[in-house]
Design goal:
Strand content: 15-25%
Distance between the termini: 13 Å
Strand order of the largest sheet: 3-2-1-4-5
Amino acid sequence: MGRILAIDYGTKRTGLAVTDEMQIIASGLTTVETKALLPFLKNYISTEKVEKIVVGLPKQMDNTASESEVYIQKFLVQLSKAIPEIPVDRVDERFTSKMAFQTMIDSGLKKKQRKNKALVDEISATLILQSYLSSSQF
């Protein structure tokens, strides 16, 4: 089995998370500048066996697409051209940023540490991946 890689796409920064090779545990990987995302992914996939990529699907409360979906769609086109051999799934990412922030509070991080937006993005990607692992689509 290969890893599943989750992406919490943002226009400035993108959070990444991966599973272990048995696809049981979701762990934060890192946060990268979005402009460096595709080269990072290509490099990562060349060194680690990745079976699937999961990308967050931002939705409004009324289930319509969020404004950021336009940027994610452009990224998905680039991703499919750059790494066509790995399938991509989408997962509803509503509330992941709020849940990530709450996770930081619950884990005892100090206020200064909670302002680290890169950490929020990485935790959000982990939550997206955990949601995917827990869902029936997996």
